[in-house]
Amino acid sequence: MRRTRSLKAPLLAGSGPLARVPPVAAFALVIAVFTAGVLVRGWLGAGLLGLLAAGVLVLLAATWRVLSPAHRLGRVLVLGVLVAVIVSVL
């Protein structure tokens, strides 16, 4: 029998300020900022995407010790793709 994870359970245990943010709300905000950055283009779009990249970098640094090597690689790849998108909207 396969166990499913609760959608309300935290992805990583913690009690920081993001622990109370619903994952769906965080996902919706990221999608909205990413979409706005891609559609706006230019320096403003790159700035919005840069804000996302900075957030990914901060979260990656904060969770680095508890992530497995495969999860680390995945997050670094996401950061790399985001940087490539930033360069492409300029």
SSE order and pairing:
Layout: H1 23-40, H2 42-63, H3 69-89
Helix pairs in contact: 1-2, 2-3
Transmembrane segments: 21-40, 46-66, 73-89
Keywords: Membrane, Transmembrane, Transmembrane helix
Let me know the average pLDDT: 86
Please give the oligomerization state of what you see.
single chain
**Strand fraction band?**
under 5%
Let me know the number of strands: 0
Tell me the series of helices and strands, N- to C-terminal.
Answer: HHH
The profile of the biggest β sheet is: none
- DSSP summary: helix tally: 3
SS class: mainly alpha
Write down the Rg. 15 Å
Keywords: Membrane, Transmembrane, Transmembrane helix
Transmembrane segments: 21-40, 46-66, 73-89
Give an overview in words.
Keywords: Membrane, Transmembrane, Transmembrane helix. The chain crosses the membrane at residues 21-40, 46-66, 73-89. This protein is an all-alpha fold. It has a domain at 39-89. It contains three helices and no strands. The protein has helices spanning 23-40, 42-63, 69-89. α1 (23-40) packs antiparallel against α2 (42-63). The longest helix has 22 residues, at 42-63.
